[in-house]
Amino acid sequence: MAAVKKTATAKKAVATKKAAATKKAAATKKAAAANKAAPAEKAAPAKRAAARPAKPESRTALVRRARRINRELAEVYPYAHPELDFENPFQLLVATVLSAQTTDLRVNQTTPALFAKYPTPEDLAAANPEEVEEILRPCGFFRAKTRSVIGLSKALTEQFGGEVPGRLEDLVKLPGVGRKTAFVVLGNAFGRPGITVDTHFQRLVRRWKWTEQTDPDKIEAEIGALFPKSDWTDLSHHVIWHGRRICHARRPACGACPIAPLCPAYGEGETDPEKAKKLLKYEKGGFPGQRLKPPQAYLDAGGKAAPPLGAG
Fold this sequence. Notes:
CATH architecture of the domain at 59-245 and 282-300: Orthogonal Bundle
Structural class: mainly alpha
Radius of gyration: 35 Å
Shape: globular
Number of strands: 0
Number of helices: 14
Low-confidence stretches: 1-8, 31-51
Strand content: under 5%
Largest sheet: none
C-alpha cells in the first residue's frame, strides 16, 4: 500500500514538473514574440511619419527659391534677350504680333522683306493687303496677321502720330495687341519692366510651383509679387529661354537641367544625364539663336546668327 502511494506521489510530481516546464516555455515563447514585434511597433511611427505629406512651402521660402532659380538661370543665359529682330519699337511691335502661332525664327526670316517695303507705320497703314499677305504667308495665319499689322499701323498713324506709345494702357488698345505683346515692347524697346507670360513662361512657373494660376493676368500678378520690379524683363527672358532649350513641355531634360536641385517637378522628364543631353534643342548656352542679327553680347559668347529665309 505504501509503495502504491509513493508511486502516485512520484507521478504527480512529474506531472507538476512538466506543467511548470510547459508554462515556462509558453512564457518564453510569448516574450520572444513580444521582443520580435517591438522593433516593428517602434518603426511604425517612423513609417507613418515618412508617409505624411511635406509641409507646405512658406511664402518666405518660395520667394527665396524663386529668386535663386532666376539667379541660376542668369548665369546659364547671361545674354538672354528677346529673340525677335528689331531696330525700333515699331518693328518689335509688328514682329511680336506676327510671332503668334509660329516661331521667332520664322518671323525673323520674314520681317526683313516686310520692313524693307514698309519701314514706317504710315507706309504699312497704306499698304495693299494682298501684297502684305504674300510677304507674311510663311508666318501662318497670314490673312489675320495682315489685318492686325495694317490695323495697328493705321491706329498708330491716326491716334499717336506714327509713334509707338510707351504706356501699357495705350498699347493694349491697338489691334492685335494684348498685355503679353505690350510688355514685350515696353520691356525691350522702352526699358520699362514687364513680365511676358507666354506659353513657356506659364508652363515653367506652374511646374516650379511658383503659382497655381492658369489665367495669364493672374500669373503675371502672382509672379510679379515674388520679384523686384527691376527683375521682371530679364526674368521673362531667363524663363522663356530655359523653356525653349531644356524644360520642354513633353519631355523636360531633367538630367541636364542646371536648376534640378531647386525644382519640385524633377523626375517628370529624363533624369539620365546622357539621355537628357539628347533632348536639348540647343547646345548648352542656348546656341544657335533665332535672330538674324543677335546682340553683340550673344555673338561674343559664341552664339551664331540664324540663317535667312530659304537658307536653312
